[in-house]
Amino acid sequence: MSANWILIAALVGAASMARADGPITVTELRARGVLGELGEPLGKIVVVTAVVVDGNSLRTKEASGALYLRITRVGERTLASPALLSVADRSQLKPGQTLRCAGYETGGFSGIVPHEFEYIEAYAAYGYTFKTHWVVLKVVEP
To answer: What is the CATH number for 59?
Structure first.
């Protein structure tokens, strides 16, 4: 193999390695999907076993006034450590309640983006990040 081919192969390899560590495109995201905190694809309906947690007990500003599920089982699989997910729909839930419910994990980006305060007045929030939360479809067992 000539030196030119080795150089081309090295450049192509370096370009693909740089690409693997960089951001992915929306097209790639849609094609590949995202595994959530529960180890299941976002948007996949599963039944979980969990305890409802009052966000105020977590003692963080972000959690204040919200409800969370401390999930210990996904389907028949026991998690190695419980997952704590905020809940989108609070109507069926009461803090301290242990339940099984059908639903799905979903998510999106939110927070303060870089250079945002160059355009608007500053406010208290967290940095721009991807977060997931749980959507309750039905409480299977109270």
So the answer is: 2.40.50
